[in-house]
Amino acid sequence: MGDWFQTIADLDATAEEAPGLAEVVVADLVADGIVSAERTDCGPGADGGHPPGSRYAEAFDGPDYGLLTLGWNGLFAWWGRSVVDTGQGGGEVGCPHCDAIESYNEPLGAAFIEAIDAWYAQRPSDTVCRHCGRTIGINDWRWADGVWAFANLGLTFWNWPPLRNDFVAGIGRRLGHRVRLVAGKL
After folding, report:
1. What is the reported pLDDT for 89?
2. Percent share of the chain, pLDDT over 70
3. Contact 150, 116 (CB under 8 A)
4. Rounded CA separation 53/68 (Å)
5. For residues 69 and 44, which has the higher predicted lDDT (pLDDT)?
6. Model confidence at 108, in pLDDT bands (50, 70, 90)?
7. Helix axis angle, 165-175 relative to 18-31, nearest 10°?
8. Whole-angstrom Cα distance, residue 173 to residue 168?
9. Where are the alpha helices (DSSP H) in 90-164?
10. Cα-flanking dihedrals φ and ψ of residue 90, to 5°?
11. CB 166 within 8 A of CB 86
């Protein structure tokens, strides 16, 4: 079985601004009725998360698949330098300049592992497209199916149905930054 998650990762937030941005966005989602203000044990983490609010279904289309009956069904806002992935690994990436498609595995695999290590160490984490030779920031590659994001801030929804695109885009507008949705399973 397992638990599903969807993380809206802020690709541009700095470590310094992330806690304040998380507080503002969660307050907005509480005000909108998407999540409740109370914190409960509705998912992983010692600090608890925010369970679905009275208008939670506005974040997705279709049935909720019994979301309110699940033990893990909350929103967890987090900050701190993190790599967000699907939990399944792999994937394909596209160059934003020449549209070449590469496998995350070889030959780019080693370059991305180095870039991830550099990103964690707060060093330049750019990679070079082997087709066009242009330098690409780690969050600027087009990851197929939102496989990876590198962020200082994220909003993780546990076991929610697929979030609507306009809901995700609205979070990005509230943050004033680029966001990427990464969905996966533990």
Report:
1. 63
2. 92
3. yes
4. 10
5. 69
6. low
7. 130
8. 9
9. 109-120
10. 70, -160
11. no
Identify the band that residue 16 occupies on the pLDDT scale cut at 50, 70 and 90: very high
Location of structure tokens 């507008």: 173
d(CA 134, CA 96): 10
Question: Which two structure tokens, joined as six digits, stand for 52?
Answer: 């679905």
| Token digits of residue 45 | 């983490």
Please tell me the distance from the alpha carbon of residue 55 to that of residue 71, in angstroms, as a whole number: 19
Q: Do the Cβ atoms of 138 and 125 come closer than 8 Å?
A: yes
**Per DSSP, what are the bridge partners of residue 37?**
none
Rg (the chain; Cα; Å):
17
CA 38 vs CA 43, 50, 51, 174: distances in Å? 13, 6, 7, 21
Which pLDDT score, from 0 to 100, does residue 76 have? 96
Contact 143, 3 (CB under 8 A): no
How far is it, in rounded angstroms, from Cα 151 to Cα 91?
A: 18
Output phi, psi for 183, to 5 deg.
Answer: -115, 140
**Environment class of residue 43 by beta-carbon count within 10 Å: exposed (0-12), middle (13-18) or buried (19+)?**
buried
